[in-house]
Amino acid sequence: MARPVIRAHVRNLPEIQAAFSAQPEKVRLGVIDALKIIGLLILNRAKARIQGGSKSGRKYKRGAVTHQASAAGESPATDTGKLVSSGEFAVDENSLWVTVAFTAFYARLLEWGTRFIRPRPFIMPTLDDVKEEIPAIFIKTIRARLKGGGDGE
């Protein structure tokens, strides 16, 4: 199955394009800063999607606790907290990639569904929600690095 990819291109920003030629390391550090912010943003929004929102699936009891499950098409409902706590992100500073993953074995099954379970997407809707914010994050962090801000400056 193909991995979802978001690509961001910075266009019509002459000062950043010129800076890339003159100060490529500062631009690279700004991109790394942006990837860290974007990874955390996606991770936190996906977790909020799981932990919040209304769920309309079946209700069931486990011991003294009643749980409201999600219905098909809704983000999964938190039950044990294992899915939320399995979320992580990592930035590869060499290839300039950010990876956001939920490592609970059933995360993929919930996102895409199976022949027995209809999808309960939480990652792809999160990507749809944040994609418009991503270019501004790159612009802000690159400009901050060019002005001498950021880590290690």
Secondary-structure topology with pairs:
Elements: H1 14-22, H2 24-51, E1 59-62, E2 65-68, H3 82-85, E3 87-92, E4 97-102, H4 107-112, H5 123-130, H6 134-146
Antiparallel strand pairs: 1-2, 3-4
Helix pairs in contact: 1-2, 2-5, 2-6
Explain this structure to me?
It is a single chain. The chain has six helices and four strands. It is α+β, with helices and mostly antiparallel strands and 153 residues long. Strands 1-2 form a two-stranded antiparallel sheet. Helix 1 packs across helix 2. It is elongated, with a radius of gyration of 19 Å. The model has no long low-confidence stretch (mean pLDDT 86). Helix content is 44%, strand content 13%.
Explain briefly what this protein structure is.
The chain has 153 residues and is α+β, with helices and mostly antiparallel strands. 44% of the residues lie in helices and 13% in strands. A two-stranded antiparallel ribbon has the order 1-2.
